[in-house]
Design a protein that fits this description.
Rossmann fold, alpha+beta, 6 helices, four-stranded antiparallel sheet, 24 strands, Immunoglobulin-like, Jelly Rolls
Amino acid sequence: MRNQILFLQLVFAGCLFGQQTVIVVPGTSDPWLAGMPNGSTASCGPFGSECDVAPNLSPPAVTGSVIVPGSTLTITATGLECYDPTPTCATGPDGNPSLPISHVNGAENGVSGITAPANALIGVFLGPNQPSLTPPPAQLGSNTAPVLKQVFLIGSSSHITVPAAATRLFLGPMDGFGWYDNYGSFTAQITVDQVSVTAVKMFDSHTLQIDVTAQFSQSPATQKNLAIATTPIGADSNSSIRVTLDSNNCPACSYILPSGTVGQFMNSFRIDLRQAGGGVPRFTDNQVFDVSATASESGTIVGTATKMGAEIPLPVVHVHGIMTDCLPDHVPHGLFNYLIGIHPSYTEDDGLALTQTYPTLVSFDYHSLSGDAIDSANQLTNWIQNQLLPMTYANKVHVVAHSLGGIISRTAIANYGAGAFINKLVLVGSPSEGVTIAPEALSNWNVIQPLIAAFVSTVAFPVALVPQADNALGCLMAAAVSELQ
């Protein structure tokens, strides 16, 4: 597939790769006061005392042309800091690895919590707005890039991709509470990288998209080139048939810039995985791999960058439990938001339809009260095999099933061969050993059924409206009517 190119003209002076900013970070800089107005408090002690107050204990901010969403920053730091008033516990920016601590209040003022080595240098990106006006994101997972308001570990040296909509970066040391009496300071240097891998994602069911931004000279006469390479991808991490992509086996992994190109340039490499490297094996587990990018000019390398831990996850299928289909919203937004917080490469589908170009967080819907569990298991198998997987480069999915959804998922594996398409099955509250009341209800159904009939006839509920009911009572009545017909 032809590479899709976006040429970015610089629209303000000074926004050049390689630009540096140096900032002093006092030990008293509380990251949970980032972006908060004067008089705001944070990180109070266990008994509600020893609070930090803005602006005296607010963290320093990096702003301006250094903070460009999608660019990669190299942050290095030196100095000594201690979570007490004396230097006895002082460490460098990597902190004390034998003393991991958490923020006493977890998420606060709209900013996420974090667990990190005591004294370690940490940071948080914000947009232009006060962070407490919107809920905090989940705590950052390992090997993932931070989003807005998500605290991340920097240490003595880190490469960080600036998240979308970020306009400010705040820095501070790690403490549990009460930054007001901390000792020392760090000096941090923030540099915009010459080359950066800004995004790795699936463009469609078979196309891997890798976005690279680079800074070239202002000479229009030189030939300029961008190239990418990956560590092995395909199948699962234990497979011997995984493929390493580079310009030798992947023509789309190298690009010669148009003649006359100068300055900053971004290219979206789009790689057909069915053809590159002789064909990348379809995914049977989450893909985690590194992507390197090289910019060269007149045959001389001018910059390189590596994005560690790029991730293309298997789709996660949620199979709801009994009566969840009776609710107006069947999608487990809490679960999906948690997964996105740990793995930002996930994307939640809108509603219950497969609306994303490459769906990764989806829900399977079925009639839990009026439908047959065995039929639902067959439908689940067919849906995964014939609708979901063809929209992805995956051969398998992960399934998270709640309550009755677990029974349906296990039936799909046992009776319909769904195990061939499922990598992991997680059961949440599923009655795998049966339900004690079910035999009683079955043996006394001759008594229960007339009671249901009397209830339905007494309230005179319109049968035609029952299947459209958006609440649990209506759903129960729908099941009752179904049994009577």
